[in-house]
Amino acid sequence: MQIFSIRKRTRHLNKLVHIILLFLLHDATAQSGYIMTVNGKLEPSDSLLVLPHEHVVTNFAGADKIVRIPYIPDPALNVVLPHLMKLKQSGINLLVECTPEFIGRDVTLLKKLSLESGVSIVTNTGFYAAAEKKYLPAYIPSLSAESIAYAWQNEFDNGIGGTDIRPGFIKLGVDKGPLDSTELKLLKAAIIVSRKTGLPIAVHSGDGVAAADELRYCISEGLAADKLIWVHAQNGTDEERKKLAEAGVWISLDGVNENNVAEYTKYVLYLKENSLLSRLLLSHDDGWSVDSNGSYDKLSLFKNGNSQPYQAIGEKLVPMLFTMGFTADELHQVRSVNPQKAFAIR
Length: 346
Ligand SMILES: [Zn+2]
What we know:
By secondary structure, this protein is of the alpha/beta class. The protein has one domain (33-342): Metal-dependent hydrolases (TIM Barrel, Alpha-Beta Barrel). It is built from ten helices and 14 strands. A six-stranded parallel sheet has the order 7-8-9-10-11-12. α7 (238-247) links the parallel β10 and β11 (250-253). The N and C termini lie far apart (50 Å). Residues 53, 55, 98, 285 line the site of zinc ion.
């Protein structure tokens, strides 16, 4: 009888521990959120190594000239896939693809590349108003923020362009600050969608004045600063980056190439000295573009200094940071923990 009762109590205790563990696990997932990839939700993991701002194939023809081809172009697969495979071998398993609609976003191509390479890929919704609105269809400035938000929300709820592929963030592009009325309207639309979905907002920003304007507007609309990613923060100064990082904004230094590693090391060191490594994201902004006729047969690599796309951080910057005294934990924070937090949907 005694033994039976002890067994019964042990069983109850085990059950209780199990329930508590499940609760804790559920709570942890709810807090850390998930990342939306082209293949669906991805749970955060210690083993994810991330490039938070890259491209695959872009088309810079302009919003009034660009045509979307209705099939996956072989050259795009043949050219890009080996580089993604190499990336996977080097330990990078998550790539955030930042090409917006009207600059050649092709989510079907991204899904195929992701499945074949084993690298998870995140795509986006949003519009790009930088480069003096060349990539923004002329009808968009006349739409209300609410109707723009509706279109983006629809991509998140129902998939992009008839696919089941959903965006993992909102991508905007603005020129140098202060923001003009169209840029502000797009930001307003992004805030509406971010509030409803939890999607982060990554803004290609012409300078630090534009980024500071974005933060002010987000705060005035009640959106948390950590929903904002300052894309191309290398266009700002150390002081501007420090100020926005202290406010909670993600600082994306995303133009690392084989020739500017010393310069980036200085930017990163400055953030470390100010205890702000926890806000830093690092990437290359590498990718390919189609030729002026929109042909995928002659893809050219971006001319941003990298002969080997997606590799300069792992091969050049990281070794340099190690020699400067950075620890493995600090680099793990910057390359794994930070981007997962920045792109987490809660
Ligand atoms: Zn970019």
